[in-house]
Structures are given as C-alpha cells and as structure tokens.
Amino acid sequence: MGKLKKTHFFDCYKDSSTLIEFAGWLLPVYFKSISAEHMCVRENVGFFDVSHMGRFIIEGPDSEKFLNYITTNNVRKVKPGFCQYSLMCNEKGGIIDDLIIYRLDSSMFIMVVNAVNTLKDLRWITSHIGDYDVDITNVTDKSSMLAVQGPYSEKLMSEVGIEVSDLKRFACKSIDWKDISLVVSRTGYTGEDGFELILLESSPELAAQLWHTLIDKGKLFNAMPCGLGARDSLRTEAGMVLYGNDIDENINPYEAKLGFVVKTKKGPFIGRETLIKIKSSPLKRVRSGFIMERGIARHGAKVYSDSENIGFVSTGVYSPLLRRCIGFMYISPEKSILGNTVYIDVRGRRYPAKISKWPFYDETKYGYRRSVV
Q1: Which of 232, 244, 261, 327 could form a disulfide with 316 if both were Cys (CB 3.0 to 4.6 A apart)?
Q2: Cβ-contact 90, 271 below 8 angstroms
Q3: Average pLDDT, integer, range 7-36
Q4: Domain 55-138 belongs to what architecture?
Q5: How far apart, in whole angstroms, are the C-alpha atoms of residue 34 and residue 336?
Q6: Nearest Cα to 143, choosing from 86, 83, 102, 171?
Q7: Which DSSP state fits 369?
Q8: Which CATH code of 3.30.460.80, 3.30.1360.120, 3.40.50.2000, 1.10.10.350 fits the domain covering 10-53+141-237?
Q9: Residues 330-354: tens digit of each pLDDT
Q10: pLDDT of residue 371
Q11: Rounded CA gap, 58 and 63, in Å?
Q12: Phi (first) and psi of residue 347, to 5 degrees
C-alpha cells in the first residue's frame, strides 16, 4: 500500500476521530460513535468530509452530447442549475459506476464519482472522447467536498451564511462565501434533506474555515461531524447502493433496481443495445431489501431458501434507527416477494431474514419526504 492521501479537511479532525484507510485515503470512520452520528443525521444535522469522491470538470461545445453518450440518463433534460443521478455502463450493460452530474451552464458540467473508481472512470471517459469537442479536468486533489445532512441542514446552512432556501431537491448553484467559491447542491447520500458543497479551488486553510464555522454554528442544532460508518448505515436505510458491494461491472442496472436512470429512448449511448435486450428478458436475480431480528449479515454471506443457495448478501449493516440488521441481497425475483422469509448464513448458522422494501424507515417521520421536522 502506498502513502495514503489526506483531504484538505484532515487537520480539522485528525486528533478527534478514529481513522481508517478507504480507497487510498485516510478518513474518519467515526468521531463519537457510529450510532450517535447516525441518529444525529436522522434527527438533527451532521456533516461529512466527502472530499475523497472523484470530481471531474467536463466542458466544451460537445459536453452535453458527450455526457449523454457515456451515461445512461438523459443529460439533455438537465437544465443549468440542476443535478442528475446517472450510471456509466460498459458494452455488456455492467455498471462501471454510479455518479452525479452537475450542470453549471450550457457547456460546463461537474461529474462526481465514487472514490474507488476515480482513476478507472477517468480512463474510461477519456478513452471515449473520440471526435467530441470536450475538455476533461480531474480536480479531485485540488478541490474539497463536504456534505451537510439532516432535517436541520437548511437552518444550519443559513446560520453559516449560505442561503439555500431557493434550492429545490437536486438543484445546484455557484456562490461566494467569505471569499470562498462554492458549488452547492441539494443532494446527499443519507436519505435526508441536505446539501453538498464543493470548494473547486480549495486549500487546507479554506477548508478549515468552513469546517470550524460548521462546528461553531452547529452547536445551535446539536450538530456533529460524522464519519464513514454512519454514512454507510444511513445510505443503506435509505436504499442507496455502494459501488463494489451492491453494484459493479458484473451487475446491470435492472438487477440493481436502478433501471429508472436508464433512458433507452434518448438515442445512442454505451451499452444501450445490450440494456434493451436485458430489459426485455426475465431477470435471474434482483437486489432485494431484508431485515433480520437476530444476527448481523455481512457482504458475501450466502442466502438460502430451505436447503437451496439462492443468492448472496451485498450489504449488511446494523441500523441504529431500527436496532436490527438490514441490508440488500441478490436473489431470484420469485424469492424476492415482500414479506417472504429467507435464511442467511452468519458464521455457520442460518438466521431468518424477511424481504423488505426500502427506505427501511417510516418516510412520514424520517428522510427528505418527512411530514414535519
């Protein structure tokens, strides 16, 4: 293993968190505890250093056409000032990555990709430029990114001096805050209302200014800095996938239940013909949610129906909100009926698991759709 990379926020938390290696970066897995940080985001507001995520600027006269060719969603539908969740697939329909595209103006975009795939994605994207008139710049190392998530995120942002009440879900804008240029979007990876802030021209000093302001103003809302552990349990409760666990190049969007971002009628894009065939054929496996009353299943655990091995667990975590294990598994469609019971092998013992919908929480009480705060 080479020298681990550190984000521009690193000095802000290096002495107050438990650190781990993730995708070549040294990052906090938790500050106080995973459960406390998880519940803080569900009930108040928390913030995360997500600077390890890959960030590319894609610009030029053909930027829209190019992005529409390499991703599955319809980029033409994205107006300036909005974002779009999408996928990149290979010619066989396998998922290269899931990502967010920010449209800043008619010909300038930011693409945010998974940290583990940053260099792979960059190679894939640049290898398909062909005759498209576009420029691609990897700004991951010189920029920073921070997520503010939870029902009080808008109020905290207002206290910090960043006005976001005008932003709809998946909207974005560029602003100046205390001489710091930010791109702010109403997006996140927790299921809650929240915002993600990109400092395109960052430094440890500028990052620290933002971090410490959030610490100071966050006291009004019992805010906490949060680590990767809570980010994982929060995204699982919300039904969101993690690359390398729930999706990869051997899993297609329809198996992963991400077909809603595959727009086969928009015109040519990489993998389109294969995906049309997959969509029209019976699936052998699908991503399904599960809840366990006992035991904690982990990635790779085998799933059984009676004595038959019918699939595997892609994600398994302890839910601090539900106080039991939840996750995703890939099993045959006929076994994935809501309420059906299957069995998961946990260290040699088989525990029952009930097939469940996601989000796993009551959406009237938690998540961005909640009725009241």
Answers
A1: 327
A2: yes
A3: 98
A4: 2-Layer Sandwich (3.30)
A5: 30
A6: 102
A7: T
A8: 3.30.1360.120
A9: 999 999 999 999 999 999 999 999 9
A10: 79
A11: 6
A12: 50, 45
> What is the CATH code of the structural domain delimited by 282-360?
2.40.30.110
Tell me the CA distances in angstroms from 251 to 8, 203, 286, one per residue in order: 34, 38, 10
Axis crossing angle, helix 204-218 with helix 153-160, rounded to the nearest 10: 120
Beta-carbon neighbour count of residue 349 at 10 Å? Answer: 10
Q: What is the pLDDT of residues 188-207, one digit of tens each?
A: 999 999 999 999 999 999 99
The residue type at 329 = M
Q: Which two tokens stand for residue 341?
A: 């019971």
Each residue of 219-239: pLDDT tens digit? 999 999 999 999 999 999 999
Pairing of strands 46-49, 224-226: parallel
